[in-house]
Amino acid sequence: MDQNPNIVLVQPGSKNLLTDDLQSWMSHFSKHFNLVLNRVLGSEQKIIQITEGNIKDLKVLKENCTIVFLVHSKSVQDKGYQDFLSKVAGSIGSPEADASESCWNSMKINLSKYEYNQLPDRIKFCMGYDLYREGEQEGTTQLVSAEDKDYWPRLLDLVMDIKLIRLRDSATVEQVPIYLASSASDEKLNWYQLRRELMGFGYKILPDVDLHYSTGDLKSYVQRCVDKSYLSIHILGNEYGKEYAGSGKSLPDLQFQYVTEYIDTIHSDPDLENQSNLQRLIWIPLETTNMDEKQEELIQQVKRDIEKLHRTEIVQVPIELLKTLVLNKLQESESKKLESSKVKKDGKKLVYLIHEKSDEGSIEVLSKGIQASGFETTKIPFGSDQESLLGLHKAFLAECDGAIIQYSGNSRSWLMSKVKDLQKAPGLGRRNPMLVQSVVIKGNDKAEDVVFPPNMVIIRDKDPEKHLDLILKKLNESK
C-alpha cells in the first residue's frame, strides 16, 4: 500500500454471511460514510475495507488509524468469522492493556441485535451506533436506510466521534468530562442530540465505551467516571428499559443508583465534599404518557427523595432549555472550584487579544494600555500554519484570565464564531472561569442587532482604549 489508511472498515465479505439486502446496504453506507467524513474532517480520507478474505491486511491496524466494525447477527454467529474477529482484536492495542481501555480508536456499527458476548472484549466494549430498528414482527429488526430520519444524524454522530479522537490525539489541553448516563430506547434521539451538542462545545462525554460489564465491574466503572466528571446527567422518559445482566434493574436505573451511592460517599466525608465539583441533573421530558409501571415508580421515588439526593436537581423542561441548564450547571461547577481554591496564581494575569490579521497593527494600542496597568497580553502569531494557530487559540482560551475580541467590521461571521469560542472555553479544560470577556467594536458595523451573552463587556468606540477601565475593573476584582 502506498499510503497508510485513515479509516479501516472491518466487515463480513463472504456470500454465506451476506444477504443481497445487506450487501447493497453496506455498499451505500460506504459511499455515505466517505461523503460525511470528507465534509466534517475537511480533507479526503483514505478508507480501506478488511474482511475475513483479506486477513493479510491486518498489519494496517497497527498504524495510526480509526477502526470501524460493521456487526450483524449472521456474521457474529459464524465460527469462522468469530475467529477472524479474534485475530483483528489481537491486533488492537497492547496484549496487557485492559480491553475497555484498548478500544479508544475503535467503533462498531450495529446492523441488528446480537449477543454481545460473541464478540472479543476489545470489540465488545467499542462505542456502538445502532443503524437498525425493531421490525414489525416481534424479535425481528430492519436496517435503517438513508431515507430514515435517524440515518444521517447517527452517521454524523459516528463521524463527530472520529473527529474528536483526532483532536484528542493532538490536544494541547484536557477536555472537561461530563457523565451522560444511558437512556431507555424512547429517549435515545434526545440522548444522542444532547451528547452531540455537548461534544460540539468541547466537553468530553463519558462513558466512551459500550457498557457490557458485569454489575460489579459496571459499578466500579461508573463511579470512576463520575469521580472525574463535573456533571452527571440522567434522562428519565416513559420507558424503564431492559433488565441489565440479570440484575433485576435497567441500565439507566443502575447508573442512577451507582452515582447516588458515589455522591453519598463524598457527602459523608468533609474532605471529599470540599474537593469534588460534581453536580447531578435529572431530566424528565415534558410529555410523559403511557409510562412503564417500573419507570413511574422510579420517578416518583426520585421526586420523594429529592431532599436526600445531594448535589441533585430535577428539571422538567423542553430539550432546548435543558441544554442551557446543563451549560449553566457546568459554569456553576467552575465557579465553585474558583471559590474553593485557596491558592492564587503566581505572576501577572494574562489577557488574550483576539483579532483578525488586518488588525495586527491596531491591536497594539489596546495591548500596551493593558500592559501598562500591570497585566500580560498574548495574541496569535499569524505567520504560523493553520493547524498551529488553532492549537494556540484553544490553549490561550484554556489558560487566559480574560479575553478581548477586537472587531473592525470586516466579517460578522468571524465575530460570531469568536464569541461562540469564548462560550465553549469551559469545555477546553479551564481551571477557573474567565474574569472578563469583552468585545471591542471599532468599525462601521456596530453589531447593534447582535444579542451578546449578558456577561460580556461590549465597547463600541473607534478609540476603545479610552474605556479600558471597564475591562480593568473586572480583572482587578480578584487581586
Q: What this model shows, in words?
A:
This protein has 479 residues and is an alpha/beta fold. The chain folds into three domains: 1-170, 3-Layer(aba) Sandwich (Rossmann fold); 171-342, Response regulator (Rossmann fold, 3-Layer(aba) Sandwich); 350-476, Rossmann fold (3-Layer(aba) Sandwich). It is built from 15 helices and 17 strands. It has helices spanning 20-41, 73-76, 79-90, 121-124, 151-170, 188-200, 215-227, 251-267, 270-275, 293-304, 319-340, 363-371, 386-399, 412-424, 468-476, and strands at 7-10, 47-50, 66-71, 106-110, 127-130, 132-134, 141-143, 177-180, 204-206, 231-235, 279-283, 312-315, 350-354, 376-378, 402-407, 436-441, 457-460. α1 (20-41) crosses α5 (151-170) and α7 packs across α8 (251-267). The protein starts with 6 loop residues before the first strand and ends with a helix. The relative contact order is 0.07.
Short characterization:
By secondary structure, this protein is of the alpha/beta class. Helices cover 40% and strands 15% of the residues.
How many DSSP helices? Answer: 15
Mean pLDDT: 83
Query: Which structural class is indicated by helix and strand composition?
Result: alpha/beta
According to CATH, the fold-level topology of the largest domain is Rossmann fold
Question: Order of strands across the biggest sheet?
Answer: 2-1-3-4-5
CATH homologous superfamily of the largest domain? Response regulator
* Whole-number count of domains: 3
What percentage of amino acids are in beta strands? 15-25%
Q: Tell me the Rg in angstroms.
A: 25 Å
Unreliable segments of 5+ consecutive residues: 338-346
Name of the top-level CATH class of the largest domain: Alpha Beta
Q: Give the termini distance in whole angstroms.
A: 60 Å
Total beta strand runs = 17
